């Protein structure tokens, strides 16, 4: 592979800076309230420069960000599953490693995850078909990979026989719920003083306990579990 030219490196760096500014603005204001003008200001580029890289404006920019975030999320899941397979970890050990990796990544890239919660989850329920279909299609790869991981654990008898895809959505939904809670902690309304979960290690243990063992103090009664939703 030939080395990248200086001009190309500069072009890629400008594009990266524009996307990082876009992530920050979308995460703070949501898609509807975000503007190309503010993104340009955050990136410290002229508005015209942004259109050179993203001729269709903020929709094209959001599409690119969604694609990048989907690849990022899939790679995180893939890395944990592959490493656990190499180390022959149990389902619970792998699940704990996944929660730890997900939350560690969140604490390193909070704007990325707040964008997911504030913008992408909303788009999945919106009437904007093009963006909605893009989000769903890109998330499908991660959902499929994690569902397969759950199905294998069910076949080994390590996980109760729930509907794997529905369970995957529930697990990621709980992770996004924690992100919303964490965002609330750091920007609560003046009338509220929330109780904080201590450091990330406590949050990891708390989420693992919740997702692996539930919230009831009493064992569940034996009932038939639905395989389909």
Protein described:
The chain is mainly α and 229 residues long. The protein has a domain of 153 residues: Tetracycline Repressor, domain 2. Helix content is 74%, strand content 0%. It contains nine helices and no strands.
Which structural class should the secondary elements be placed in? mainly alpha
| Total of DSSP H or I helical runs spanning 4+ residues | 9
Alpha-carbon distance between the termini? 49 Å
**CATH architecture group name of the domain at 61-213:** Orthogonal Bundle
| Low-pLDDT windows of residues | none
Q: Which of globular, elongated, flat, extended, rod-shaped describes the shape?
A: elongated
CATH level 1 name of the domain at 61-213: Mainly Alpha
Q: Tell how many strands the DSSP assignment holds.
A: 0
Rg (C-alpha, Å): 20 Å
Quaternary structure annotation:
single chain
Amount of beta strand: under 5%
Q: CATH topology of the domain at 61-213, what is it called?
A: Tetracycline Repressor, domain 2
Q: Which sheet architecture does the biggest sheet show? A: none
Please give a quick description of this structure:
With 229 residues, the chain is mainly α. It starts with 5 loop residues before the first helix and ends in a 16-residue tail after the last helix. The chain has helices spanning 6-33, 36-43, 47-53, 58-87, 91-108, 110-124, 129-155, 164-186, 200-213.
């Amino acid at each position: 592979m030939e080395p990248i030219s200086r001009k190309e490196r500069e072009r890629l760096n400008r594009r990266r800076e524009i996307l990082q500014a876009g992530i920050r603005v979308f995460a703070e204001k949501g898609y509807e309230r975000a503007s190309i003008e503010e993104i340009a200001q955050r990136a410290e580029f002229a508005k015209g420069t942004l259109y050179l890289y993203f001729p269709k404006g903020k929709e094209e920019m959001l599409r690119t960000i969604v694609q990048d975030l989907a690849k990022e999320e899939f790679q995180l899941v893939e890395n944990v599953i592959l490493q656990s397979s190499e180390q022959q970890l149990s389902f619970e050990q792998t699940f704990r490693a996944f929660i730890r990796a997900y939350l560690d990544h969140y604490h390193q890239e909070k704007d990325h995850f707040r964008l997911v919660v504030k913008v992408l989850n909303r788009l999945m329920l919106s009437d904007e078909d093009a963006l909605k279909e893009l989000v769903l299609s890109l998330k499908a790869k991660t959902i499929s990979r994690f569902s397969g991981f759950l199905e294998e654990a069910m076949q080994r008898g390590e996980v109760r026989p729930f509907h794997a895809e529905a369970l995957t959505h529930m697990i990621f939904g709980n992770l996004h719920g924690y992100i919303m809670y964490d965002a609330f902690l750091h920007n609560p309304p003046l009338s509220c003083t929330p109780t904080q979960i201590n450091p990330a290690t406590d949050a990891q243990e708390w989420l693992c306990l919740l997702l692996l063992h539930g919230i009831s103090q009493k064992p569940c009664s034996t009932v038939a579990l639905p395989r389909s939703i």
